[in-house]
Amino acid sequence: MDAIILQILNGLDKGSAYALIALGLTLIFGTLGVVNFAHGALFMIGAFCAVTFSRLLQLSHEIVDETRTDFLGNPLKVDVPYLQDWFGPETGAAIIDWAVPLSILFAIPVMLLVGFVMERGLIKHFYKRPHADQILVTFGLAIVLGEIIKANYGANPIPTPAPAAFSGSLDFGVWLGFDENAIIYPYWRLIYFLFSAVIIAGVFAFLQFTTFGMVVRAGMADRETVGLLGIDIDKRFTIMFGLAAAVAGLAGAMYTPILSPNYNMGMDFLVLSFVVVVVGGMGSLPGAVLAGFLLGILQSFASMNEVKSLLPGIDQIIIYLVAIAILLTRPRGLMGRRGVMEE
Predict the structure, then answer these.
(1) Is 338 inside a domain boundary?
(2) What CATH number corresponds to the domain at position 19?
(3) Chain-centre distance of CA 185, in angstroms?
(4) Would you say residue 123 has pLDDT above 90?
(5) What is the per-residue DSSP string for 273-284?
(6) Which residues form the signal peptide (predicted)?
(7) Is 65 inside a domain boundary?
(8) How many whole angstroms separate alpha carbon 200 and alpha carbon 193?
């Protein structure tokens, strides 16, 4: 039982990332009708927002420390972050330590800007083009963005640690009545799941309970009629593209302590997240979230040594096998709408 609970936790962790990326993909497809294969690159850019913010916080200057000497007895030169000069050693060190969660404040405006520029500069020219054209141009954009990141940050993964307060693990099993050390789980993975739940709930609440969200949902159902009412639905859809980019960016920024950012991480998550969208149903926001967590849990169980010993490599293909099975029985996905992607 403890092994099952541990795999469920692992699945919720993976599913959180899949669900957030798939949610943004579905928002873009549902509002603009665009199959955005550059959405994984937005996840990657969000991760490098955290890397960049962390480096900005660590900007330093060199001073001579009279209290420390080298082997010749000369005073040592040490680097002191500017934050420690401005806020004091303890406060400055604490701000640097909390770089990843604080990077949200940096990632939101950056990702909104990236989303607006992407939509106005490129995506808008492909609204009425075939989905194949949309896939090709956005996939090409994803490659270009990946190469830009590679040129500026290098090809190697960049470790970006979580705050020291959350660097350890929680004895989760004790909460459920198990023996001590039966279920040990990293704090930050639990934080990421809770963070994802808040973002997902916030997106649904925004669409469900705000006037802006209601107009967007009406535009998703009947864009022409909403336009005839005198509402600039195109402007609202552009804002939704920016919000979808921000969701993907926040998902990437908070994921950096779990997976060290590298220029290819966007592609890795994009393929899986697009499968999640198709399984959940193209254009269905609840379907994207449900499929994200479902496939994350299935992939987690498939990665168990007991399963891999019976079916080697099953953890690499389980998502695709499930997708094939679901689409054979439910061609529109779990919660897909009639007429979407059927022309």
Answers:
(1) no
(2) 1.10.3470
(3) 21
(4) no
(5) HHHHHHHH-TT-
(6) none
(7) no
(8) 11
Per-residue model confidence (pLDDT) at position 211 = 87
**Could you give the angle at the alpha carbon of 25 between the alpha carbons of 191 and 130, nearest 5°?**
170
Give the span between the Cα atoms of 216 and 66, in whole angstroms: 63
Nearest residue to 44 (alpha-carbon basis) of 207, 193, 256: 256
Of 248, 329, 256, which is closest to residue 22 (Cα–Cα)?
Answer: 248
Tokens of 31: 């509002």
Q: Which two structure tokens, joined as six digits, stand for 255? A: 């994921």
| Token couple for 281 | 């149903």
Q: Could you tell me the pTM of the whole model?
A: 0.87
Asked if the structure places residue 304 within a domain, the reply is yes
Give the count of domains, the chain: 1
How far is the C-alpha of 190 from the C-alpha of 171, rounded, in Å? 12
Residue 341 lies in a domain: no
CA distance 299 to 84: 44
Per-residue pLDDT reduced to its tens digit, 60-89: 888 877 677 766 677 777 788 888 888 888
Q: Which two tokens stand for residue 337?
A: 């709408």
Residue 19 DSSP SS3: helix
Q: What angle do CA 199, 240, 145 make, to 5 degrees?
A: 85
Q: What's the half-sphere exposure (Cβ side, CA atoms, 13 Å) at 176?
A: 14
The residue assigned the tokens 């939704």 is 240
Cα–Cα distances in angstroms (integers) from residue 48 to residues 92, 172, 265, 275, in the given order:
22, 31, 11, 24
Summarised one tens digit per residue, pLDDT across range 201-243 is 999 998 888 888 888 888 777 777 887 888 887 788 888 889 9
Output the CA angle 168-170-175, nearest 5 degrees.
Answer: 170
Whole-angstrom distance between the N-terminal and C-terminal Cα of the chain?
A: 47
129-188 residue pLDDT tens? 887 888 888 889 989 999 999 999 988 999 999 999 888 888 777 777 677 777 788 889
Are 103 and 161 in contact, with CB atoms under 8 Å apart?
no
Residue 314 belongs to domain spanning? 2-59+100-329
Sequence-distant (6+) residues with CB within 8 A of 50 are 99, 100, 103, 107, 160, 252, 253, 254, 256, 261
